[in-house]
Design brief:
single chain; Rossmann fold; 2 domains; 7-stranded mixed sheet; 4-stranded parallel sheet; 11 helices; binds 6-O-phosphono-beta-D-fructofuranose
């Protein structure tokens, strides 16, 4: 972990990648604690775009953040700064001399933009992609602190990312609502949730919401095994079922359901739930219907847990800068928040360990993973 005691005057904050409930709470905590410590604060619009393409922002790609700009935003979803998951500065979609598009590393231009605007330090709120960029900036001399954001909870070296609890709580509420309609119609409801290549949302919501089967990327499924488990239910007087499918779930020997892949951004996943419903219907002899919770999981107010952890992360990020840290991410290590190298947090994905007690609990409760 690099330590640099050079005096900081101007801090910039940005939010990158998919939004997550709690972003505004972190922004407020960073701004208020930074102002209280005598720093100036600025927000970069739409990830790094406000600095990369300032011409697109007639009102300014870098906006001053005052107490007034962050008043009353702790409970709001979204981000007052805007975000993007396109145009990663290290893989910027650029047209080559042959007229073809390719990914170009434009991080030096970004570093120059930080210097030109007199920004001494960055607090980056993001998932693995955005914090990977923050790490590149830190390696190139910008003092950068990361704050772990993502509903997917797949960032390593932190017990939790902010946004995850809100997504799981909402998914659980949806499952609660689906039990009665599934039972009324004697249907199988297949519920697809986000999470990319990690099954945290599906697992936690599935166990909390009494699912009968949970399919996660970490455990490739056998559709016949799921069907066999669901066919046991009528013997216990249950003529319906709830199956939770992570968007990254895949059949044994099969592939993840990818919708598209564009330059400069992560591939879009989708269709995993529909595939399970289609393959399951003839095997269980019941109507199988799909509900995709998708972006609903990212909306709304953060839960109390997410608000508090967001405020704690934001304040800790400013303390980290004050203590001279750079190239670190604030991380929850209960009961405290500590600093971990950004490089370690972004070099591998945190997936669900197969021997974790939530998986064991699910199995003990008779929930099928299709394995
Ligand atoms: O990483 C957060 C996330 O919501 C994933 O769960 C999902 O795969 C992805 O973002 C969707 O992103 P987009 O907003 O591009 O559809």
């Amino acid at each position: 972990m690099v330590k640099n005691k050079t005096k900081i005057r101007k801090i910039a904050i940005n939010t990158g990648g998919g939004d997550a409930p709690g972003l505004n709470a972190v922004i407020r905590a960073v701004v208020v604690s930074a102002l209280n410590k005598g720093y100036e604060c600025f927000g970069i619009r739409d990830g790094y775009n406000g600095l990369m393409t300032p011409g697109d922002y007639p009102e300014g790609g870098l906006i001053p953040l005052t107490r007034r700009s962050v008043r009353g935003i702790t409970h709001l979803g979204g981000t007052i700064l805007g975000t993007t998951n396109k145009g990663n500065p290290t893989k910027y979609p650029t047209m080559g001399p042959d007229g073809k598009m390719y990914e170009k590393d434009r991080s030096d231009e970004l570093v120059a933009a930080f210097k030109k605007n007199g920004i001494d330090a960055l607090v980056a709120l993001g998932g693995d992609g955005s914090l990977g960029i923050a790490n590149v900036l830190a390696e190139k001399g910008i003092r950068a602190i990361g704050v772990p954001k993502t509903i997917d909870n797949d960032l390593d070296k932190t017990v939790i990312t902010f946004g995850f609890d809100t997504a799981v709580s909402f998914a659980t509420e949806c499952l609660d609502r689906l039990h009665s309609t599934a039972e009324a119609h004697r249907r199988v409801m297949v519920v697809e949730v986000m999470g990319r290549y990690a099954g945290w949302i599906a697992l936690n919501a599935g166990v909390s919401g009494n699912a009968d089967a949970i399919l996660i990327p970490e455990i490739p499924y056998d559709i016949n095994k799921i069907a066999a488990a669901l066919k046991e239910r009528p013997k216990r007087g249950k003529h319906y079922a709830i199956v939770v499918v992570a968007e990254g779930a895949k059949p044994r020997g099969g592939a993840v359901s990818v919708v598209s892949k564009e330059l400069g951004r992560a591939e879009k996943l989708g269709g995993a739930g529909e595939r399970v419903a289609r393959d399951l219907e003839p095997l269980v002899g019941k109507e199988c219907r799909t509900v995709v919770l998708g972006h609903l999981l990212r909306g709304g107010s953060p839960t109390t847990f997410d608000r508090l952890i967001s405020l704690r992360f934001g304040a800790a990020a400013v303390r980290a800068l004050e203590e001279g840290y750079s190239g670190v991410m604030v991380a929850l290590d209960p009961p405290t928040v500590r600093y971990v190298p950004l490089k370690d947090a972004t070099s591998r994905m945190k997936v669900v360990p197969l021997d974790c007690d939530t998986i064991m609990t699910a199995r003990d409760l008779g929930i099928s993973f299709g394995d």
